[in-house]
């Protein structure tokens, strides 16, 4: 078998790489990539992930940026390509949860913010990374949606609307790259042991809301998501494009 040389290993970019799922994705991709760039609005969290990636023996770069900003998004895509070379894998993962509140009381400004970060942020990432990948004709993008992209959840109208939009963007981008060696897929995690789910559970109990279905499967771990992102980004998934890849231990199967 041919030895793996650096040139065979892609460069990866992970947004929201300072968070629980993004960090697990960055560390998982560090096993197969020559370099991993971590973008997060939380500079310290991004730097911590970059340190962990380097400790795992992979090159890393931490960039503080707001994924809602076209200028900052274009700048971090440029910076990664200047620093490490062509982006082969893009985990478009940054996102926020908003609040738990019934729709008739849902704060307008939180709804707007969810669309800004979870939809506009994902759109901008797709836009600037695809602009680089399309001339090269290859690359793999995995957008982090949620099982909230394919079902409603009481108390989470803003989040649910934003994640349905992420799936729509994924499918549209996938159609636009059909016939190339670029693939755009969405991963749809169910509840994962993470800061985000702890925050939503705390809010739900404070507001006497129940957004978790009774009798659902145990929470997953960030590594469960990272493993599937790594698969979707790999050549093993060469024929997978435009997929909504659910990772929820069967919660949405029934
Ligand atoms: N945790 C879950 O149970 C779960 C389930 C389904 C989907 N998801 C999705 O997975 C993704 C990661 O979530 P997580 O659980 O790791 O949450 P997290 O809060 O731990 O991580 C999200 C990261 O995104 C960063 N971020 C937020 N706004 C940003 C912005 N404007 N620009 C740049 N970075 C920004 C945060 O600083 C944070 O580090 C999100 O898209 C989330 O919606 C999470």
In spatial order, strands of the major sheet run 3-2-1-4-5-6-7
Number of domains: 1
- Secondary-structure element string: EHEHEHEHEHEHHE
Low-confidence stretches: none
CATH class: Alpha Beta
Helicity, as a percent range:
40-55%
CATH superfamily label: NAD(P)-binding Rossmann-like Domain
Structural class: alpha/beta
Bound molecules: nicotinamide-adenine-dinucleotide
Give the helix tally.
7
Largest sheet: 7 strands, parallel
What's the N-to-C terminus distance? Answer: 43 Å
Average pLDDT number: 95
- CATH topology label: Rossmann fold
Cα Rg: 17 Å
**What is the CATH-assigned architecture?**
3-Layer(aba) Sandwich
The percent range for strand residues is 15-25%
Count of DSSP strands:
7
3D structure, described in words:
There is one protein chain. The protein is 43% helix and 17% strand. It is globular, with a radius of gyration of 17 Å. It contains seven helices and seven strands, in the order βαβαβαβαβαβααβ. Strand 2, helix 2 (43-55) and strand 3 form a beta-alpha-beta unit. The protein has one domain (10-246): NAD(P)-binding Rossmann-like Domain (Rossmann fold, 3-Layer(aba) Sandwich). It has a seven-stranded parallel beta sheet with strand order 3-2-1-4-5-6-7, with helices on both faces. By secondary structure, it is of the alpha/beta class. The longest helix is centred in the middle third of the chain and has 29 residues, at 108-136. It binds nicotinamide-adenine-dinucleotide. Nicotinamide-adenine-dinucleotide is lined by residues 15-16, 18-22, 40-42, 45, 66-68, 93-96, 117, 121, 144, 146, 189, 191-192, 194-197.
């Amino acid at each position: 078998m041919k030895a793996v040389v650096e040139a065979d290993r892609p460069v990866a970019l992970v947004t929201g790489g300072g968070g629980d799922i993004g960090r697990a994705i960055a560390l998982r991709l560090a096993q197969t990539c020559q370099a991993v760039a971590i973008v997060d609005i939380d500079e310290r969290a991004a730097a911590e992930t970059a340190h962990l990636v380097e400790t795992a023996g992979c090159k890393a770069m931490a960039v503080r940026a707001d994924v809602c900003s076209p200028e900052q998004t274009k700048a971090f895509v440029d910076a990664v390509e200047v620093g490490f070379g062509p982006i082969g894998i893009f985990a478009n993962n940054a996102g926020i949860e908003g609040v738990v509140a019934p729709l008739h009381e849902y704060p307008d400004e939180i709804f707007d913010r969810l669309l800004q970060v979870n939809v506009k942020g994902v759109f901008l990432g797709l836009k600037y990374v695809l602009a680089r990948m399309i001339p090269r004709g290859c690359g793999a993008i995995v957008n982090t949606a949620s099982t909230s992209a394919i079902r409603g959840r009481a108390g989470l109208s803003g989040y649910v609307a934003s994640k349905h939009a992420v799936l729509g963007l994924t499918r549209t981008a996938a159609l636009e790259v059909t016939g190339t060696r670029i693939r755009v897929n969405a991963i749809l995690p169910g509840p994962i042991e993470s800061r985000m789910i702890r925050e939503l559970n705390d809010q739900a109990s404070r507001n006497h809301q129940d957004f978790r279905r009774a009798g659902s499967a145990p929470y997953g771990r960030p590594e469960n998501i990272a493993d599937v992102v790594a698969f979707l980004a790999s050549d093993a998934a060469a024929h997978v494009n435009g997929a909504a890849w659910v990772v929820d231990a069967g919660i949405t199967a029934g």
